[in-house]
C-alpha cells in the first residue's frame, strides 16, 4: 500500500503468457485494477521467479523489490530480488541474493530511511541485509528457525521476525534483532505445539508489544523482556457456522492502535 493509501500493489501470474508475473496496481478509491506491470527482464531466466507473492515498497513509493525467487541468467543457481521502477513501469535492476533455495514465501521490508532492504529467507533460516545504493547484500543474520514475516521498529533499529521451528514445524517463534549490530538479541518460543504453525505478526505502534500467531491463538509478547505475557484463544471467539481450526497467518494493527485485525487462514474468517 502506498504511503498515502491511494495505490495498492499486488502480484499475480498471467498464465496465458506462459506464467509471466505481473504487478497489479489497484486504485483504492474506486477499488479497481487500473494498471499492470509485466515482471520480465533479461537478467532473469525466462519463466523463473515471476510468481513471487511478496515484495517491499520503498519509503518514497517509487520502487518495488521482489522476494528472491528469480534465477539469474548469468548463474541460474543464484537468486535475484528484482527492482521494479513504478514510474517507468518495468524491471530496472536486481540484487543478487546468492545461491539460495527459491521460496515464494520470503518477505521483504525497507528501513525507514530507504537505505537498506531486509529479506527473510525461510528455507535458509536467515535474513539478509542489502544496500539499496549499491544493490549488494551487505550482511547475513542467522536465525534459529524458519522465518516468514518481518516487521521493523519505527526508528529502524530493531527487526521483529516471526517463523516456525524448523524440525517439526509445530511451534511459532519470534526473533528480536538489533539492526545496529545485526545480531539476534532474543528469541521467543511459542507455547502451543501443533503443526503447522501460523506465525502471523503485528507490532503495536509504540513497539512495546508483538502479537505472534500460533495454533488456535495469538500470543502477546512484551518486547523489552522478550516474554509471553498473555494470549487470546481464537477458537473461543468463533461464532455459529465457523468451521476449522484458527490459523492467524496475517495480523495487523489499526492506524490508531486501538484494534488488532486477524485473518484466519484455516477457517476462512476474520
Automatic annotation (TrEMBL):
InterPro entries: Haem_d1_sf, Host-pathogen_enzymatic-act, WD40/YVTN_repeat-like_dom_sf
Protein name: YncE family protein
Upper classification of the organism: unclassified sequences, metagenomes, ecological metagenomes
Amino acid at each position: 500500500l502506498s504511503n498515502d493509501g491511494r495505490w495498492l500493489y499486488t502480484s499475480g501470474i498471467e498464465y496465458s503468457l506462459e506464467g509471466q508475473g505481473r504487478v497489479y496496481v489497484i486504485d483504492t478509491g474506486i477499488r479497481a485494477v487500473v494498471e499492470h506491470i509485466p515482471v520480465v527482464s533479461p537478467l532473469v531466466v525466462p519463466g523463473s521467479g515471476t510468481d513471487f507473492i511478496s515484495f517491499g515498497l520503498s519509503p518514497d513509493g517509487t520502487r518495488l523489490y521482489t522476494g528472491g525467487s528469480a534465477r539469474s541468467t548469468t548463474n541460474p543457481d543464484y537468486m535475484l530480488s528484482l527492482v521494479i521502477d513504478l514510474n517507468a513501469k518495468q524491471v530496472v535492476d536486481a540484487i543478487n541474493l546468492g545461491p539460495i533455495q527459491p521460496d515464494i514465501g520470503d518477505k521483504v521490508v525497507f528501513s525507514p530511511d530507504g537505505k537498506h532492504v531486509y529479506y527473510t529467507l525461510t528455507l535458509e533460516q536467515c535474513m539478509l541485509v542489502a544496500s539499496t545504493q549499491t544493490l549488494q547484500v551487505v550482511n547475513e543474520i542467522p536465525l534459529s528457525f524458519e522465518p516468514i514475516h518481518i516487521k521493523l521498529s519505527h526508528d529502524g533499529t530493531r527487526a521483529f521476525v516471526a517463523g516456525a521451528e524448523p524440525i517439526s514445524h509445530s511451534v511459532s517463534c519470534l526473533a528480536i534483532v538489533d539492526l545496529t549490530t545485526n545480531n539476534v538479541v532474543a528469541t521467543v518460543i511459542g507455547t502451543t505445539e501443533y503443526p503447522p504453525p501460523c506465525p502471523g505478526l503485528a507490532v503495536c505502534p509504540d513497539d512495546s508489544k508483538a502479537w505472534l500467531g500460533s495454533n488456535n491463538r495469538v500470543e502477546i509478547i512484551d518486547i523489552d523482556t522478550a516474554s509471553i505475557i498473555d494470549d487470546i484463544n481464537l477458537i473461543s471467539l468463533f461464532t455459529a457456522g465457523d468451521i476449522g481450526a484458527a490459523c492467524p497467518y496475517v495480523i495487523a494493527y489499526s492506524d490508531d492502535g486501538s484494534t488488532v485485525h486477524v485473518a484466519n487462514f484455516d477457517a476462512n474468517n476474520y
